[in-house]
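Researcher: I'd like a candidate sequence for this fold, 240 residues long. If you have to choose between options at a position, lean toward the conservative one.
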């Protein structure tokens, strides 16, 4: 063997030895999704945030969710198969849960959503908001005689603030008064606050985030009592 052939052979072996091993397929890990609280309603919304209907979860796993009509509520609208929707519910610890998915089956009393993807939620509030569905009224804070109520619907509430929907337009920074009877027969409550978030809704009207002024201890106790009673009644309705 000539010297040239010897060197050529050495180079060939070096190239083989320096070859990178074939990339192995990444290991698949199953992600454990948080479980919906079956005693709390779930909102089904468009991608733009318009609420299509509210239902109760009856079956749930990492890939799909089955919702049924809440007793006493109107029938579901029939949604197009494959429609991408957003879901807003609550965990057993009453932490907000946000998902997106696609409609697999849709009827007037039930709806199945598959291809669920969990959207992590970070809560920076000092107090946890509780989901509610209560008719309420908004007043300009200077309307001390409560002569000009604006009907609104309470979406969630805590001792720190609330989220409401309303047809009337308020700018961010506007001082308002929120008045409602959360539990029938328990009397009306009234809270002064400031609009800190205003968002126009696709279907018309506005959604507002309201930050309450510092509540007195008696107000906090009354509100917490009514929230607990409302949750108790809602759970009974959804779980029966």
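Model: Candidate sequence:
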């Amino acid at each position: 063997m000539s010297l040239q052939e010897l060197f050529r052979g050495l180079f060939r072996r070096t190239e083989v030895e320096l070859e990178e091993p074939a990339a192995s397929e990444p290991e698949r890990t199953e992600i454990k999704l948080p479980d919906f609280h079956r005693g709390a309603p779930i909102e089904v919304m468009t991608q733009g945030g318009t609420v299509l209907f509210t239902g109760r979860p009856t079956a749930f796993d990492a890939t799909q969710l089955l919702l049924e009509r809440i007793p006493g509520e109107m029938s579901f609208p029939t949604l197009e198969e494959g429609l991408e929707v957003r879901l807003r519910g609550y965990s057993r610890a009453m932490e907000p849960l946000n998902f997106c998915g696609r409609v697999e089956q849709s009827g007037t009393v039930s709806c199945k959503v598959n291809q669920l993807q969990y959207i992590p939620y970070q809560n920076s509030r000092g107090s946890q908001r509780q989901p509610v569905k209560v008719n309420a009224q908004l007043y300009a804070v200077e309307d001390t005689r409560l002569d000009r109520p604006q009907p609104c619907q309470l979406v969630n509430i805590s001792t720190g603030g609330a989220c409401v929907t309303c047809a009337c337009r308020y700018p961010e920074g506007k001082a308002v008064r929120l008045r409602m009877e959360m539990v029938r027969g328990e009397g009306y409550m009234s809270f002064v606050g400031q609009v800190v978030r205003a968002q126009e809704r696709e279907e018309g009207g506005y959604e507002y985030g309201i930050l309450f002024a510092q509540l007195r201890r008696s107000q906090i106790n009354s509100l917490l009592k009514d929230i607990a009673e409302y949750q108790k009644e809602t759970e009974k309705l959804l779980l029966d």
